[in-house]
Sequence to fold (490 residues):
Amino acid sequence: MAKFDYDIGILGGGAAGLTVAAGAAQFGAKAVLIEKSRVLGGDCLHFGCVPSKTLIRSAAVWAQARRAQEFGLPGLSLPPVDLGAVTDRVRGVIEKIQAHDSVERFCKLGAEVRFGAARFVDAHTVELDGRPLSARSWVIATGSRPALPPVEGLAAVPFWTNETLFTQRVLPARLLVLGGGPIGLEMAQALARLGSRVTVVEFLDRILGPEDADVAAILRERLEAEGVAILTETKAVRAEAVGTAVRLSVAPPSGGAPRVLEAEALLVATGRRPNVENLGLETAGVEYSARGIPTDARLRTNVPHIYACGDVHGKFAFTHVAGYEGSVALTNAVLRLPRKADYTNVPWCTYTDPEVASVGLNEQRAVKAGVAYRVLREPFATNDRALAAGEPNGMIKVLVSAAGKVLGCQIVGHHAGELIHEWVAAMNGGVKLSTLAGAVHAYPTLAEISKRVAGSLFAERLFSDRTRGVLTFLFNLKGRACSPPEKPAG
Fold:
């Protein structure tokens, strides 16, 4: 039997890699985790989820202060925001969370941590700082980086990405955002709330392309009400620096006369690109493309003892999916149990205000899959807690089969990212709509909207004229006690 330095080696210290390293060590495997940068935590901790949500929270507090009069409070005259102070808070939160992803913690668990750029020299061995390290199995979890659109002159202008945004200390008076997806919209709203005049440029005919149009429309209305300009069906053609400003020429995707936009800063948020270069994948015999490293359901590459998970896999660029995939790869590589990844009930959330959360099928995915469905809707405006909180905008939208099985749920509204998890649990557990409708929910809570939308399916049947007629006959009921009052004449 071949002898290796380690039972398992992991390339990448983000969510997926950390999950594998911690689990492998606790199972008793000899594991080595190799991270290219000098810190663990990956994109999520340093450039993604953590800093963005910290910034969003600071901006939300400022936006709430502006709404004081809506809540019966005196109006406030607010001074300009010091972006440097906000950035300091962002860095402070990252440092606190970094302690959970420290080298010391993983060493205590039993995983060896090394830093540097590793490269495969054969299917079982990588070279790190001139030294070969071999492992029986390898997990590639090298993440992704911002994808740049093909805009003429873009490389010559000083643009931001999520990797540079959270070090900025001067709030631009005007900001251009390329991309109307989750990252672009989250940051556009946050910086607009802090005081920038923001314009979003989106190639497609609407923002949040994967979401249904009616869901995206609710968010767009809120963003535009807050002063964010949104240009859909608009293509960025050329970028150039003009003094300290950036000038962007845009036009319809089908061609036409361009228009010129100008701002002090440009944020590029047009998607992610898997980190597959300079890993020696060809030497190891691992197939890959610009879209990532393909795997089977057990997350094995075409080389069975080499796995890929997280953003580099190219499936879903979410931290929680990376962690999940890490656990699947761990089960297969270390425990040697044939566990398969299942993405059917993976939720996601865009952390704008209102939030947009989803799990399972929405209408456009159902149509594409050829799945028959009906839609149940309930607006936030009918929820007492939403009214008390001053957050009546939004809705919950549930897709069900003809037999009443839950196919998916979308929520756009206050705390949608929290509310979606009742539906994640329901779909994972095969919970019936009748069970959700019959469950007692605390009053007043936003979660009551889930009970109400679930019950709407049965209300149609229970309170129909036919049902009333049968009950009146069987139980000798006298019918309705009163009718709506007549309107006064004139």
